Amino acid sequence: MIVLGIETTCDETAAAIVRDGRRVLADTVASQHDLHAAFGGVVPELASRAHSERILPVLKQTLAHAGTALQSVHAIAVANTPGLIGPLLVGVAAAKALAWTLQRPLIPVHHVHAHLYAPLLDTEIQHRDIYPAIGLAVSGGHTALYRLDGPLDLTRLGATIDDAIGEAFDKVAAILELGHPGGPAVEQLARSGDPNAHDFPVARLSTTSLDFSFSGLKTAVLYAARGTPSNRGTQTAFPKHPSSLSQQKRADLCAAFQHAAVRAVTLKLNRALDLQTPQRPRAILAGGGVVANQALRDAIDRQAQERGIPLLLPQKRYCIDNAAMIAALGSVGLHAGLDREQHIAATPTSRA
Ligand code: KG4
Ligand code: ZN
Questions:
Q1: Which of 49, 226, 239, 319 could form a disulfide bond with 292, CB atoms 3.0-4.6 angstroms apart?
Q2: DSSP of 216-281, one letter per residue?
Q3: Considering only CA atoms, which residue is closest to atom 18 of ligand 1?
Q4: CA-to-CA distance for 180 and 11, rounded, in angstroms?
């Protein structure tokens, strides 16, 4: 069975062909990083336009790479929530047009849930061996913990109450003028820094909370980099300009920030693993752009080993937004009878 996946929730126009739910035959990601770099973040209107321009070339290239004729596609899966409304509409419209013309099933896929299915891509892992599982989704738009009783049966245990972890990486990169997106740049510079150079805050919230908070950490990095501002609001004036920071100072800030961010994740993951449930989780599943970070991968790997629970991480290329994870979870949805004819909506927010 061949499923075509489409992903346009944010700033990546992506399509993929996945066979039998797992084998990735082609996976194309057209990133818009250059387009948004000058603005230090994703500009929704620019993203929508770029998706409209790129969606057909990306689909054509994906089919060509896979050596698959459009007629051989059995179903279309599309990420329809959560995301930016303009970008979502482009992907959903393309998916509907294809499903209608080819007369194929159309399957809506939850973007964040798909990140937690990415570890299964190109593997033969059986669902019965990993569920129930604890899921950790860490990306530019989301930071959440889940209990998964199946790939489509998720209960959110906690989520960020302010910034997402990836957003914090991006903001730290912006403070230090390292470019956008910042995650990879911060990770790179952190390698030559001292994680103990600053004692940045790790938000615990209440003693049992499984929620996250990264805004205090981000502000602590800002003040450490630029000094405490003399005024507030539009009058804010910092004593130091980022250009005055030495390369070593920047590296230390990156390393200490990354250390605190990773610590916040392992702390909450530990709490989730401590939850008393009738059935002990069989695995930890992690996904999202920040799982590309080697320090985070190593930390949760150590944690999983200490607790004697298998950890499933996606290959690095399947951490960032891609359509292979959409096609794969779409295949599960198809088997579960979740295909819709044309009745799917692009929905920007989701509490699921
Ligand atoms: O999953 P993703 O592609 O998009 C969303 O669903 O949000 O995640 C993108 C986020 C960005 O914030 C980016 O800076 C972060 O993932 N990221 C990283 C790394 N690579 C990407 N953060 C830390 N270290 C990395 N190596
Ligand atoms: Zn994502």
A1: 319
A2: HHHHHHHHHHH---SS-GGG---SS-GGGS-HHHHHHHHHHHHHHHHHHHHHHHHHHHH---SS--
A3: 183
A4: 12
pLDDT tens for the chain, 352 residues: list them: 999 999 999 999 999 999 999 999 999 999 998 888 888 788 999 999 999 999 999 999 999 999 999 999 999 999 999 999 999 999 999 999 999 999 999 999 999 999 999 999 999 999 999 999 999 999 999 999 999 999 999 999 999 999 999 999 999 999 999 988 899 999 999 999 999 999 999 999 999 999 999 999 999 999 999 999 887 777 888 999 988 999 999 999 999 999 999 999 999 999 999 998 889 999 999 999 999 999 999 999 999 999 999 999 999 999 999 999 999 999 999 999 998 767 899 999 988 8
User: 351 alpha carbon to ligand 1 midpoint, in Å?
Assistant: 20
CA of 278 to the centre of ligand 2 (A): 31
DSSP, collapsed to helix, strand or coil, labels residue 324 as: helix
What SS3 class is residue 162?
coil
As to burial, measured by CB atoms within 10 angstroms (0-12 exposed, 13-18 middle, 19+ buried), residue 16 is buried
Residue ranges with CB less than 5 Å from ion ligand 2: 139, 321
The structure's pTM equals: 0.96
Residue whose CA is at the smallest distance from ligand 1 atom 10: 140
143 lines ligand 1 (CB under 6 A): no
What are the distances in angstroms from CA 162 to CA 54, 141, 169, 238, 299? 32, 10, 14, 24, 23
Ligand 1 binding pocket includes 11 (Cβ within 6 Å)? no
Q: Find the 320 Cα to ligand 2 centroid distance in Å.
A: 6
